[in-house]
Amino acid sequence: MNNIQIRKMTYDDIPLICKADNDESEDNIQYLKNNLNNQDNNKCSAIVALYNNQMAGYVFLYYECKWGGLKNQGLPSVVDLIVFEPFRKNGIASAIMDYAEKEAANYNSRIYLDVCLNSEYGPAQCFYIKRGYVPDGAGVYYEQEVLGLNSPCKNDDELTLCLVKEL
User: Considering only Cβ atoms within 10 Å of each terminal Cβ, which end of the chain, N or C, has fewer?
Assistant: First the structure.
């Protein structure tokens, strides 16, 4: 773990993140800037991980999240945990989540996140369950709303399960 440094994201990190993510598009730059603006306005923490001084990943912790399965309930939420491919399997996701959960505990005794259900997110699903996250009991969500019985949906990034953890 000595190789991992976790800290708050700054605007100077944006080019490093974009390069590490191989996405230097204006959309990605704007997405990161928007989250940093929210950090400046005390709505979230933008957290980065460095591994051997290289940009390795990031996450956003929203203190009172306005979207996802438990939106608008005053709960902190983990949004977009990303560890870049070359840095996976080094404990970086765990280090980021440890930091985010510790900070979230200052706002509430529970934290939540939404994880996509398609196979690309299988490793993330297992990771969160191993960390003690459990389903919220509402079932599957599609486009942030509970998906009714026999309702049609697509297996895309909008099909999610909301997971909650007691801190």
Answer: N
